[in-house]
């Protein structure tokens, strides 16, 4: 009888703690790292040859929206393809519990614009065998998982449950009794295993209001009363557990920052702020954010910034595009059915308003947008041209040039917009802050536009290998141990004895992100854009191989990590 289930032999180990790399074997027993050092191959049932490969703790993704997708995609791709072994769901205050049966359709509709998750996929793929949040967690626990999941209690459903949809959407201040009931439900969620609570607080008509409800109105969390956030923060303080996540405008908004400081102070718990983002035309935005975060640290206030460290651009058509919602004229013109949107975007009387409100928050300038997929003979000549080139040739405003092409194609034209954060120098400034969390993958959301779940691979290939902004030791701490520590993933994010065996084994020199693809693999006949990785020889979750040579093995050893912990080992991960 062998002493170990698996031994990873002769790898170069980056243990996540920032100590220098070292060559060692890693022995695994019952899903847990049992020995590190020299382990004879014959001591294990299975041997993974890691000679010439890097061995590191699995990556931890703190910002995803796999609350629906996990029910039809156990690997939570694309994150699972890029070395993510643990992820937090329920970000931004958006989720599906508690939800009364008669409100299920409305709950799914609410995710179709704010996170651009296809309605048909949710309708076909979600079991809806729950009402309460604890029942939702039980359902997630039952479903097969290729990665570990840690749930926030998203406060949007709480607001709707207690205040009613109309009251929540109006931002009505709760009565004392209603506030007490919401706090009771939050306590219930925490008792069941939630890691804390989350909320999006974007000004409905502000410069970052790009995440709205299906009808173009604010989400309930956007207009919730500040006293409700204070009450929720106090719940965490009384329990001395959990943490908070807030999506708040990234500009220099002193009132927003003061609120986050207040919530972190009331609770005494960490607060993760999304998002530290570089805008190349406004570098003062990220620089001011970094100064504020450093000041919070000096004053002992536990606010962490999560940085947008990927430059994944946006592939989009105006059939689905919603990320110009920060401009009211564009928001109104892009709400409705495809037929309604086509009529509005073709309407010459609307064009002056659209030209006057040129968006630049999410994408770069409109003239730089590339026409990548014309759909008719009339628009084919514009393939691979920028909107600016077409506008100059036709003597049109860029907005008219872009929309005339889209209208001619029935809104099916594919465009590519580079993000506003392509400057390597600005990225270097964000990466240089040792306490900025990496990611904001938005995994499971915006799947027709965005492939930001590639960020761990991009960190290793671009930030480390190409530009030398970090050492590999530092990169693995930022990708694994730091987010695990902030989020309370117990004993994860590091390679050490007694830790769950969440491990990536990769070929550093040949690691790469593959080109974008369109795949028709969603329920309800829907499609999405993906980017796969090459170079992950093995990914282990709780000691079992879930990825081998960049392909899923069909092993579902992921766990629901209630409170960030687990029973550990294979018993808890049994299929």
Could you give the topology of this structure?
Elements lengths: L3 E10 L8 E8 L2 E6 L6 E6 L4 E4 L1 E3 L22 E6 L14 H11 L4 H7 L7 H10 L5 E4 L1 E2 H15 L6 H17 L3 E6 L24 H14 L3 E6 L5 H14 L3 E6 L7 H15 L4 E6 L5 E3 L11 H6 L4 H9 L4 H6 L13 E4 L13 H8 L3 H11 L5 E4 L6 H8 L5 E3 L15 H12 L5 H16 L15 E4 L5 E2 L3 E3 L8 E3 L2 E2 L1 E6 L2 E5 L2 E2 L16 H4 L3
Parallel strand pairs: 1-4, 1-5, 6-7, 7-8, 9-10, 10-11, 11-12, 12-13, 13-17
Antiparallel strand pairs: 1-2, 2-3, 5-18, 14-16, 15-16, 18-23, 19-22, 20-21, 23-24, 24-25
Helix pairs in contact: 4-5, 5-6, 6-7, 12-13
Q: Can you walk through the features of this model?
A:
The protein is an alpha/beta fold and 575 residues long. The protein starts with a strand and ends with a helix. The longest helix is centred in the N-terminal third of the chain and has 17 residues, at 176-192. It has 17 helices and 25 strands. Strands 1, 2, 3, 4, 5, 18, 23, 24 and 25 form a 9-stranded mixed beta sheet that branches. The protein has a 6-stranded parallel beta sheet with strand order 9-10-11-12-13-17. The protein folds into 3 domains: 4-57 and 498-556, Urease, subunit C, domain 1, CATH 2.30.40; 60-313 and 420-487, Alpha-Beta Barrel (TIM Barrel), CATH 3.20.20.140; 322-417, no CATH class. Helix 4 (155-169) runs antiparallel to helix 5 (176-192).
